[in-house]
Amino acid sequence: MASARLLGTELPGIPWEDRSDGCDDIVWRYSKNPIIPSDLIPSSNSIFNSAVVAYGDGFRGVFRCDDRRRMMQLHSGRSADGVDWEIEHERIRFVPAEGVEPTEWGYGYDPRVCFIEDRYYLTWCNSFAGWPTIGVATTHDFETYYQMENAFLPFNRNGVLFPRRIGGMFAMLSRPSDRGHTPFGEIYYSESPDMIHWGRHRLVMRPAAGWQATKVGAGPIPIETSEGWLVFYHGVLTSCNGFVYSMGAALLDLDEPRRVIARTEPYLLHPKELYERVGDVPNVIFPSAALTDAATGRIALYYGAADTVTCLAFCRLDEVVAFTRENSL
Amino acid sequence: MASARLLGTELPGIPWEDRSDGCDDIVWRYSKNPIIPSDLIPSSNSIFNSAVVAYGDGFRGVFRCDDRRRMMQLHSGRSADGVDWEIEHERIRFVPAEGVEPTEWGYGYDPRVCFIEDRYYLTWCNSFAGWPTIGVATTHDFETYYQMENAFLPFNRNGVLFPRRIGGMFAMLSRPSDRGHTPFGEIYYSESPDMIHWGRHRLVMRPAAGWQATKVGAGPIPIETSEGWLVFYHGVLTSCNGFVYSMGAALLDLDEPRRVIARTEPYLLHPKELYERVGDVPNVIFPSAALTDAATGRIALYYGAADTVTCLAFCRLDEVVAFTRENSL
Amino acid sequence: MASARLLGTELPGIPWEDRSDGCDDIVWRYSKNPIIPSDLIPSSNSIFNSAVVAYGDGFRGVFRCDDRRRMMQLHSGRSADGVDWEIEHERIRFVPAEGVEPTEWGYGYDPRVCFIEDRYYLTWCNSFAGWPTIGVATTHDFETYYQMENAFLPFNRNGVLFPRRIGGMFAMLSRPSDRGHTPFGEIYYSESPDMIHWGRHRLVMRPAAGWQATKVGAGPIPIETSEGWLVFYHGVLTSCNGFVYSMGAALLDLDEPRRVIARTEPYLLHPKELYERVGDVPNVIFPSAALTDAATGRIALYYGAADTVTCLAFCRLDEVVAFTRENSL
Amino acid sequence: MASARLLGTELPGIPWEDRSDGCDDIVWRYSKNPIIPSDLIPSSNSIFNSAVVAYGDGFRGVFRCDDRRRMMQLHSGRSADGVDWEIEHERIRFVPAEGVEPTEWGYGYDPRVCFIEDRYYLTWCNSFAGWPTIGVATTHDFETYYQMENAFLPFNRNGVLFPRRIGGMFAMLSRPSDRGHTPFGEIYYSESPDMIHWGRHRLVMRPAAGWQATKVGAGPIPIETSEGWLVFYHGVLTSCNGFVYSMGAALLDLDEPRRVIARTEPYLLHPKELYERVGDVPNVIFPSAALTDAATGRIALYYGAADTVTCLAFCRLDEVVAFTRENSL
Amino acid sequence: MASARLLGTELPGIPWEDRSDGCDDIVWRYSKNPIIPSDLIPSSNSIFNSAVVAYGDGFRGVFRCDDRRRMMQLHSGRSADGVDWEIEHERIRFVPAEGVEPTEWGYGYDPRVCFIEDRYYLTWCNSFAGWPTIGVATTHDFETYYQMENAFLPFNRNGVLFPRRIGGMFAMLSRPSDRGHTPFGEIYYSESPDMIHWGRHRLVMRPAAGWQATKVGAGPIPIETSEGWLVFYHGVLTSCNGFVYSMGAALLDLDEPRRVIARTEPYLLHPKELYERVGDVPNVIFPSAALTDAATGRIALYYGAADTVTCLAFCRLDEVVAFTRENSL
Amino acid sequence: MASARLLGTELPGIPWEDRSDGCDDIVWRYSKNPIIPSDLIPSSNSIFNSAVVAYGDGFRGVFRCDDRRRMMQLHSGRSADGVDWEIEHERIRFVPAEGVEPTEWGYGYDPRVCFIEDRYYLTWCNSFAGWPTIGVATTHDFETYYQMENAFLPFNRNGVLFPRRIGGMFAMLSRPSDRGHTPFGEIYYSESPDMIHWGRHRLVMRPAAGWQATKVGAGPIPIETSEGWLVFYHGVLTSCNGFVYSMGAALLDLDEPRRVIARTEPYLLHPKELYERVGDVPNVIFPSAALTDAATGRIALYYGAADTVTCLAFCRLDEVVAFTRENSL
User: Fold this and answer.
1) ipTM
2) How far apart are CA E89 and CA C237, in angstroms?
3) pLDDT tens sequence across A163-182
4) Among F23, F216, F236, F240, which would you mutate to test the E interface (most chain E Cβ atoms within 10 Å of its Cβ)?
5) Beta bridge mates, F298
6) Are F186 and F213 in contact (CB under 8 A)?
7) Which chain E residues in 247-286 lie under 8 Å from chain C, judged by CB atoms?
8) Virtual CA dihedral for A48, A50, A54, A59, nearest 10 degrees?
């Protein structure tokens, strides 16, 4: 079989570090992790589960910065190399999009950023009547953000857009939830003609035995490849001492993303380093953004560690795809 | 203030029985309750929480008939007077609407029927990937039903359509839930341009102290009146021996139904008769359909009792509206 | 051993009905139960768990009347014979006692009334910062009630005063609880020099196997007898369908009521009649008041049934004491 | 297919009442239910879930009599016609079998009686270190009972013996449980060479959708028929107000009872009469014994109702077998 | 506004370390933390959540030393400089105060020590009938301790006395609880004429969004300042992996401490160091004692870390007061 | 009293390291812990809770290797010195023992290995109908394993055999459990004539206050000594952040092991090192195997740490026995 190819654009400046000698993991950690400490800005208790995209000749991002009240906030950030980041000290203040009535800000967390057609879409877990659902906003410049309608009724989390229309419709993955530390979770696919009204919902992935037995949720924006949409996702196992979050990958059909082509039975990344095992929530790896370079097949993954800091890991498309196919559920 | 008026059509054959002497309740029970016993058809364990509409010179309905496996099914029924019913022995077999892929039938319960423009819409709690959400179907004749897309992601119950477009959009109330005997529940408002894609979700009503402290959910199709949409709804209180379901009423703004004009602080109907207190689920009154006669202001309410049988109750529009305004939360 | 004697006063007009032929129960029900229906006053959903005392040549009482919002309220009532009752349509409005700051009324339920020295004391489960604790008030005439300080911190229920000082101190039984449908409960004894400050708390009774396995709580005001304080109390067993409330009796030492002399291993009264088994909370017998006649040893017990109606039962002191001693835990 | 035949003996005096006109239920109730009231003996609160066998020219049984402490006890009983019963006022006092050390009596409930080879075996839910497991005893005369070793470790309930050795081994069905109102339950098969040591455990039946969704447990002693072992069993569904117990039937392979030949998808009997719906535990039908007459194919079923009284129902073998096959899961 | 002043005495020997360069936290950790390791005495598993006061020209304290049975014990300790501590190897053996009956020792934990008028009062979480409540004792020399009556009924924790009478009454803060790892908790104020009888209970502080969303409890003895009583307190947030304890501060009115003048919306100290994040209970900071020097405004805070070791932190009164006012809820 | 003696054989090559200076713990850790890292074999996520025995002139073992799916597997291993281990990359594939029908492999964890008479017996927590129970297998060479019948019905864990028959019967300790992270657990004793049928179950040890308050379970194979069977066991305490596993010891009567002679009130080993406190499940010490040398009284203990790695600890028989007697519950 010919090797898997990224269908996106080239990104010569993608953050990168080769796999160290002796390591044969498919996904390997950046040696200088964490790249963003918990207190990079004065108000923050922790910075993690954040979104990053290439922008101009550098990078932009939206970051989850829990403040010292432990309230969950979204902040803009910028970086020349994708590794060293400057984050705005003030949280994003959303402007109502045209025709949308203003709402009071509650909280926002676990953002994803997706470029579609002519603008960036931000999705996140948004407070709606006090409950979590998927917030949606657009920006052209990461300075002004226009808040649109929430995509769904409560209760929902981990809304992740596809980077292009599929069958003429916008498309989103999400994970319906309950109101607390939800002990279950499946990934669903929904579509929309206008980014306001959503329907034709389909089940994509259920939990499965082992590291992903309690719940699964989509991570970075799906990556378009010659072999299908590559989705990195988190899976959760419940020990007698709480939730453990690991990372796996799945390939979804390009035209019908609800169809799972392959999905890793083993995890790809699991809490092991001290910064992943010790923090505000021990034993958490939560992937939330990816950069890709079509020229080399390199992928840089951003993930939150222990709900406290932001980290980087790397992999190569062909290896991930081969591993996913060969170790599929 | 002039008296409240029903904005709908006349229905001279509406089932009716005058309030008995000495009774000063706003809503009173039919003296021959229950009108449908639990075993009207051979396969049924219980018949309750059902939908009824005027049709031709008689009545049609969709009934929740739990069978003797205790599986929840929907059956069609017909009646000349709205009191004596014939129910089909076979459950409804839905035909996929055009462009909708067939799905395997799981279960269906707590139906509502709503006429909009040119056809009847059926909504119910439908099994979607094994979880409850709002199913939608259309029929012209109560013989052939075309199943459309589910309106929402799981988990949802008590989806109740408005009988006309509002601001050019279809509109639905629903009660997001969890996967079991949900111990919480609020009523939300959603709208759709096409009955497929839903958005602009708004919170309408939260639980409130007393009989409606645990959860609230919409009952019959909202009734259009000169004073606003009249919504009968169920409220649930949790005793040390489980849930108790009672009925109240609310008035919603005609143009912006998310705005509550008034809402009963006391209940209007509460389990008291033996057939409401004793059955498969003791202490349940669950209103699910209403008939109205614009000429007289008469309202006939259908409700399930003890999750076992179907009952009738009556009231007059002007009295209900006055009571709701005067005893509002 | 000489027969047990009541140490109180004579009450020739005590409600009474002899045990029916063939019945050999120690406590027997009134043949015309329930004596107070759930809707005796227009606003009430249910009337139960109420307090009664002899007053002048008749009787007075404080009644738990849950209204049609299902909010728990206290109402005054009067009766010539202790069986037929008139209840005020308006709830009691407490006047702050001297030196007590006014508080907002939340809810009140399960009252007890106790005459000590020169006035009547009312205790009940009172809303304190939204949580249940023991409220205290005084009255001379059952028209004006002076609300004193709450006796305890949250969370507490079933505060029952002794009818005289013991060792120079006021004395109360109570049942510390949690915030919901508490699944545990023991009876404690506390004393006070001034009816404001309470201390020297002692454990009196824990739950015991069988009908009283989940929790126990004092019922009517303790009855002073030659054999000790006679305390009727409720015990709760948890079935797979919820709580079942029955009634037993205990004898406490006259001088040190924390010492239990005897306590019924079997129950004395258990839900069996339809009005005890069916209602807002099925399977509840909740004793809350007693009248006694020292001349005859007659005792009339008032109890709530199914959290819905008020009932009467009868017994003779000597028989209850003998049974309690002979069937003690 | 030839009609199903009972492989047991004739029992001309089997209690019997024909199906009433208009009734087409496979299993029908005795018109004079309940046959044993809750207070047949002075000490009892309730009498239910009991075992009955033919004995001499009459009948003997072991009865669950919860006393007025609500402690669960076993009592012997006798009857000439299987309908009118005399029950011993004193509970059974077990004598340790030879080589078994005496243990303190805790509680016993839900007995079954089974004749094997030369004696009657009694199994029941027995207190072991305070936890429920399966107790075993033998008797020849229903006067002296020899208590053997408990069959299993805690936690277990509903141990039901087969009436003959299978493959040379004693055989038992049971339902492993937890320590409380277990919300799960499957039927297992175990065998023993000596009625002391048990092994080769096999899963027989899991819960299934509908009335048997929460748990299932064997009822009467399996009935040997030409079509396999006929097992009546209870299934439990969980409503928002607690457990509902109904009855179904299964056919197990004669030589390998772990193999299920057929099993009713609908229930055969479901709480419907007031004595089944109202009692200490509402909505319970619990079958625990059966009598059979090989000459006529008549079966008389004894079941507990509402955990309060004992009832009778009837059916014919050929009809039950046909129904079970035609309505199998 | 003039700067805040401590109203207490001077304490030149207060433990102290200046804020390190580059640190701009209001409260900063001692660089040699933890000051007391988990095994300072042979029997101890962990030493934390302890009380310290100035005494003579040195310091005395009462320490929570969980032994290697993991039983919670109280030990006396002494130190010349407040940093290096000697702890008695034997636990405190309380002597009943005059008129108090001896009780069996159960457990004691989370002590506070408060000097009032002429003696030291020790309060702690004491076993009462096996449940937690507030124990009280006095000492003059930290050698003999006289145990008084428990202040409250079960269930209570974190009883913290004020260092002088207020309005002529002794005063205490406490946090009513349940019997386990209580998932809720508010601070109440109570008063007493005699340190035996307690009453006039008032709510002071509820939980608030963020780091203090689950519960709050008072820490060190309130510090009297020109701006009000300064109370350091713990707040708890529940993650999917358990409780996280952080520290904030509040100012209470000098004359009516139930009135909250200001209260930190952000935390002042949050688990971040390895010794706070890793231990018997990860992610716990629990402040329990403070020393103050009126001459300089210096405050030394003692806190337990990870329920394992004892630590020190420092701050200045004027900075804490200013921060609390400027960042108040 | 004469010093305790090991009744087993000599093992000159037992792994050993003397207690370090200044340490006076009864059980001390190996200075090079962990001896087996989490990723010793390519497929493993973690290696812990494993069984080791002397074999020939070296050692053999069965290891719990959770793979990168987090599925629990059993692997064989070998070592020359008991410290450096080679583990097979492939999991054990069991061969059905004669007369046992093959079953599908589910999962296996927490193995113990015991030599009895002429072969090695392996017991472990085995998947049976999807639930945990005690699996049993034999091997002569640690290459071929013959799987026998499961010892018990679900639900059970920590089945630990005695190394010889007692009273002519095989004997096993086990801990009945529920289906999840069981919040309770006691040790029971069972016996069998044939290693297939088990009976005569007896309670041996309940939880006790402190570090062993939630549950207790046997660890290594009981060690025969002149003073009784020495059983190292795990005890669990529940903090607000989950379970904490420590280790204690008990002495059981040689002839009647159900009789506990002594049992440590304090723990012997408690999570303290970073590799015990941080890992997939923080704060876990789980002893599962022991080697003994009768000549010197040396004992080497293998234990899992943090459900992640395998560790060694050492002690001397006479010291452990003396400590257990002197610090007994």
Assistant:
1) 0.92
2) 46
3) 999 999 999 999 999 888 99
4) F240
5) F293, F316
6) no
7) none
8) -50
